Amino acid sequence: MRVAHTFIPLLILLLSLATKAQDQKFYQLDTIHPVHDLKPYLFVLPEKDGSYELTQILRDTSLQFRPRENFPKNLDIGTTYWGKIAFETQAALEGWQLHLEDPRPRDIA
What we know:
Strands 1, 2, 3, 4 and 5 form a 5-stranded mixed β-sheet that branches. 6% of the residues lie in helices and 23% in strands. The chain has one helix at 54-59; strands spanning 11-16, 26-28, 43-47, 66-67, 80-88.
């Protein structure tokens, strides 16, 4: 089994330009630069039983997202992790896209 398969259900990023999450840091997005270190701004919510609906993740302000740094480097394989990053920008986001990078080697057996 390849390690890459362990992270397929890992994370769905929910992007928001106006998130009111408690203690959420806003990342000042500079659309001119294509590479951004977003890890310090990533908040995570583990889900072991598959009970959350997408609308609940988007709207329920009582869910306790925690900073990614509060979790171990390697997350549990059997758990789904929802992620949230809050952006602020002065620039127009028309045509802008977020691309996620997987820093792990692709050829791990």
